[in-house]
Each structure stands twice: as C-alpha cells, then as structure tokens.
C-alpha cells in the first residue's frame, strides 16, 4: 500500500500514466478503410473504383448514390458522374483464403489484393497508388523502384499527374486535389479542341464549291494512278 510507515510506495503507484492508444486499434482502422466502401461501409468487391482523391468505392454503390444523391456522403460530393472515378485493375492475393472472404475481419487476416511487382499486401501497412490513365494499382515503393512512365502491368503510358495515392494522409489529399483539378482542366481543353475540329470539318463540307473541288482532285489522283 505505502504511506503507512511500513513500506515505500513505488513511483507507478503515485503517478498515473495515461495509456497510449493501442497500435492494434490503429491497424484495425486502417484495415477497415482499405477493405470497405466509403459510401456504404460494406466490404469492397469488384468492380472497385477510386475517385481523384484516392478513396475506394464499390462501383454499384456509387452508381446508386449518384442516382440518389441524398445518400452520397459529403466526402464524395466532388464526384458528379462516372467520369470522375476510375475502375481499378487490382491484383488478387493468392494467400487470401475462401474462409477469410466469407467470415470478414479476422485476426491476422491477409489482404485481398497485392502489389503485382513486389507482392506487398494492400492492407494499409504500405502506401499504394493507382494510375488514372489505366486503373492499374501498385505499391508506391514498386512505382519508385521501376522509375518509368510505362505501366508495368498493361504497358500504357502515364504522367506524374496520373498517379493517385490511395487512402492518403492530409498532405496527400491536398496534392491529389491539385492533380484532380489539372486532369479536369486538361479534359476540358481536349473537348474544346475536338469540338473545334468537328466544327471546321462541318463548315468545310457545307461551303459551296469546296467539297466539289476536293472530290475533283481525288478523282484526278485516282485516274493518274491507273495510268
């Protein structure tokens, strides 16, 4: 007991030390975030999509939420249509067992997906990225080690702004929002260019004499080739 004249109290008996949150709780929270839809909190199942901010959704749940926007959480209000998300090309984890698929969260459970390059599990313990250009998913470590602008999985080209950090931290979210706005601006520019080209083609076909001239030149070239 101490302080009764018979014993000397220990320091831990006099000072109450605030317990630190258990690391296990943090791991469980991360695991849940990587395995559940941001809208319904239900287990993720293919097809899985990500938004420009790197959050994960079940595609079916997202479509339903876009139809009935009352159930769309505030964190997903930046999603206006399916053009604002990318379907992910994930690599299944062969160590993810049928039992785990059926029973859900289990202690020491493996992740359902892995990095196709170095085999790291997509569980929240390692940083993962998706390429907006193709939807393929890798660990951030693998992307840095490969150090190329060609997707290792599908061979499609990508640029730095195509890299979306999945379930990133606050700093990552700031960067992802900037990249997302850049992609939207680029899409608008490309749309304007296509409309301009289409308009010019329409004007050319509607201008009297121009279409006839083009046809006459084409006929002359064809006859010359026959001679």
Q: Regions with pLDDT < 50 over 5+ consecutive residues?
A: none
CATH first level: Alpha Beta
Rg, nearest Å? 28 Å
Instruction: Characterize the largest beta sheet: strand count, sense, and whether it forms a barrel.
Output: 3 strands, antiparallel
The helix/strand class is alpha+beta
Q: Write the H/E string, N to C.
A: HHEEHEEHEEEHEHH
* Global morphology: globular
For the largest beta sheet, what order do the strands appear in spatially?
2-1-3
Task: Let me know the CATH homologous superfamily.
Answer: Zinc/RING finger domain, C3HC4 (zinc finger)
The span between the termini is 116 Å
Strand percent estimate: 5-15%
- Number of structurally distinct domains: 1
Measured as a percent range, the helix fraction is 40-55%
| The CATH topology | Herpes Virus-1
Number of helices: 7
Q: From the 3D coordinates, which CATH architecture would you assign?
A: 2-Layer Sandwich
Could you tell me the mean pLDDT? 83
């Amino acid at each position: 007991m101490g302080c009764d004249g018979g014993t000397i109290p220990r320091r831990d008996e006099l000072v109450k030390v605030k317990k630190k949150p258990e690391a296990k709780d943090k791991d469980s929270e991360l695991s849940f975030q990587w395995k559940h839809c941001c809208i319904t909190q239900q287990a993720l199942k293919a097809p899985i999509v990500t938004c420009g901010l790197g959050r994960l959704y079940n595609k079916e749940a997202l479509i339903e939420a876009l139809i009935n926007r009352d159930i769309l959480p505030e964190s997903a209000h930046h999603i206006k249509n399916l053009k604002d998300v990318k379907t992910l090309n994930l690599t299944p984890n062969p160590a993810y067992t049928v039992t785990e698929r059926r029973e859900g969260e289990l202690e020491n459970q493996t992740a359902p997906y892995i990095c196709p390059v170095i085999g790291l599990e997509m569980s929240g313990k390692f940083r993962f990225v998706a390429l907006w250009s193709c939807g393929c998913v890798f660990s951030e470590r693998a992307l840095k080690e490969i150090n190329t602008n060609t997707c290792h999985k599908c061979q499609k080209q990508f640029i730095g702004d195509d890299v979306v950090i999945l379930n990133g931290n606050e700093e990552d979210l700031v960067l992802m929002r900037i990249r997302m706005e850049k992609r939207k601006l680029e899409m608008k520019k490309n749309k304007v260019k296509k409309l301009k080209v289409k308009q010019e083609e329409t004007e050319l076909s509607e201008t009297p004499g121009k279409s006839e001239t083009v046809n006459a030149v084409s006929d002359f070239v064809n006859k010359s080739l026959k001679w």
